[in-house]
Structure formats: C-alpha cells, structure tokens
Amino acid sequence: MEGLDLLKKEWNKESNFRKITETEIYKMIHKKSSSIVKWIFIISVLEILFWLGINFLTVDDNYLKMVKSYHLSSFVMIATVIHYIVLIVFIVIFYNNSRKISNTSSTKKLMKNILNVRKVVKYYVWYNIALVFISMSVFMTNMLQYDPNITTIFNKASASGEETGLWVGLIISFIVMTLLMIGLLWLFYRVIYGILLRRLHKNYRELKKMEI
Amino acid sequence: MENKTEQEFIKQIQQHQNLIHKICRIYTSCEDDHNDLFQEITIQLWKAYPRFRGDAKFTTWAYRVALNTAITLFRKKTKGINTIEIDSNIHRINIDEYNYEEEEQLRVMYRAIHQLGDIDKALVFMYLEDKDYREISETLGISEVNARVKMNRVKTKLKQIINP
Question: Whole-angstrom Cα distance, residue B40 to residue B71?
Fold first, then answer.
C-alpha cells in the first residue's frame, strides 16, 4: 500500500492531536476574526470615508466665493445632489453585498461574493475619479473664462505673443495632475488589495477554469 | 438563551475537534499556523452557527465552513514549509505499532500535499474523508464531472511530486 491510500488508512486512526478544551474553545469564539473579509470591509469603509472627507474638506467659504465668481453655482448644486444620490445607492449595494457573505454557501459562491464586494468598491472609486476629472475640467474651463488673475495673465501673454506656450503649459499640467492622481490610486489598489486578494483570485480562477 | 446556544456550540466543537484538526493538518505545515487556522475556523463556525439548521449533520455543515475558511478567508502568517514540525507531528503517530517504512511514506505524503494549491488540498481532504463526488461538487460549487476530473488530476499531481 502506498501514497494516498496508505494515508487514507491512517487518516481515521489518528487521534494524536492536542486536545482542545472547552475553555479554550470559549476563549477562541470571543476573539476577533482575522479573516480577509473583515480587512476588505474595513479598508472599503475607510476608502468611502476618505472620499467623503475630501469632499467636506474642500468646501469652505473661499471655495464657495470662487464657485460664484466662476458662474458655477448651479453646476455645483446639481452635481452635489447627484453625487449624494449616487453615494447612497453605492452604500446600499455595498451593505447588501457584504451581508451576503455567509460562510455556508459553496466555496465558489463565497469567493464570488467576496470579489463582488471588492468590485463595488472599485466602481465607487472609478466613479470618484470620473467625478474629479469632470469637475476639474469644468472648473478649468470656467476659470479660464472668468478668473480676473488668469485674464490678466492671458492679456500679458498675448501682448508678448506667448499665448500658445501658455496654453500648452496649462494643458500639460492638467494632464500630468490627472495622470498622477489615477496613478496613485492604481498603486494603492495594487498594494492593498493585491496582497489581500491575490490568493483568492488565484483560487477563484482555478475553480472557474474547471467549469469551461 | 444566548448562553445555552454558546454552550451547545462549544460542546459540538469539542466533540468534533478532530475534524478541524485534520483540515489544519492538510492546510498548514507548522504548529503556529495550525493553531491560528484552528482558531479562525472556530470563529467562522461560531459566526455561521445561527444559520446552521438541524436538517444537516453538524459535521457535514462544519467541514464545509471549515474548508471555506481555509481556502478563502485564512491568511497564513508564516511563509514557506517548515518540515521539522511536520516530522515531529508524525512522530507521534502509532507509537505502539511502529512501522518505520510506513511512517516515512506518510511524512513524504504530507510534504507533497503541502505543496498543492488550496483547491487541490480541499480535494485531498474530501478524498481522505471518503466524501462522494456529489458532495465534493456541492461543496466546491462545481459539477460532478469536473470534480471527478479534478480529483484524478490531483492524484496524478501528487504522484509527480513524490516521484518526479
């Protein structure tokens, strides 16, 4: 007899494990879980809080004055209302998804649920990036039109024939800023969720491959 | 009421702890990881316990939750394979009917199993527990045919690891 069959024969005989007492089990179930789901959940909540925080921090009197001078009051108001509706929808989906993660379903289903939770948070972040991008574009356009300082600079530039250079400079800095932001977020995802989900993704792919 | 459920659960775990130990043995290769996984499985079982209904056997339900924990939720702290501790674990087997050759073979088997992927380990476990293909397919969420194919592949893989 060899290999697996030998092991199978021995398998049920083995009772040499350290006996865990009832007190130990009691202590165990009162300890905190260190499961992946818990970490994904914590990080996701922190993420949403982070974006909310950024929203709140950037709004102050100066900002409101600026919005008015750029003729953007109604744009900002509509955008804010839409933003909060979207936010609520996201939170509801997010909450429902994480509730669905129960350990009794099949392995594949469990993995799918975990990855779904991740996906929703990912969409949320892409939504935020898109929002920032659109707002930045709108602000830039109106700033160029209405900001008195910018108008002075432009007048000076056109007087000395450097208008094209100024435009190129503005567009390049806008692109660089946008890329930098997306790059940072991408890195954040790679590092945090990459570490947490690498094995899970691998296992999920393996199960999925078998279905084809 | 709360306490009664808790006591009931603790009794069940205490009674069926070998099941958890066995999964830990397949998935981990040193004592620290073994204990960590044991604890995480117990926590996950306790969390899932309110959804456990008496219509399934406790062990059937428990081994599924335990496997899911090992495959999807658990993160090992120690990296790499610690063969010394596996060896010392196996030394404790069958001291009365000591069979040196068989013991060596078992040691080789465990070492090979630890090199498998998480899903493959689950298949090995269910094979050793004598689960049928219907149950394996239900547990992993794949079809019975696929479970069968996969099981054969795992056996071949194990042979290749042992006799390269």
Answer: 12
**Blockwise average pLDDT, block size 10, chain B, 164 residues:** 82 92 91 91 90 82 90 70 50 55 83 91 94 91 91 92 85
Question: Hey, is the C-beta of B163 within 8 angstroms of any chain A C-beta?
Answer: no
Which of B23, B60, B73, B138 has the highest number of chain A CBs within 10 A, making it the mutation to test binding with A? B73
In a domain, A44, yes or no: yes
Measured CA to CA, the distance from residue A79 to residue A59 in angstroms comes to 14
**Residues A129, A135, A138, A143, CA torsion sign:** negative
Which helix (H) or strand (E) element contains residue B150? helix B144-162
Rounded-to-integer distance, Cα B72 and Cα A201, Å = 9
**What is this structure's pTM?**
0.74
Cα angle A114, A117, A120; round to 5: 150
Task: Say which CATH architecture domain B1-80 belongs to.
Answer: Orthogonal Bundle (1.10)
B29 close contact with A: CB closer than 8 A:
no
Domain that holds residue A111: 35-211
Q: Please judge whether A10 and B106 are an interchain contact, meaning their C-beta atoms are less than 8 angstroms apart.
A: yes
Q: Does B44 touch chain A (CB under 8 A)?
A: yes
Residue A158 belongs to a domain: yes
Of B48, B93, B142, the CB nearest to A16: B93
User: Does the complex come out with an ipTM higher than 0.85?
Assistant: no
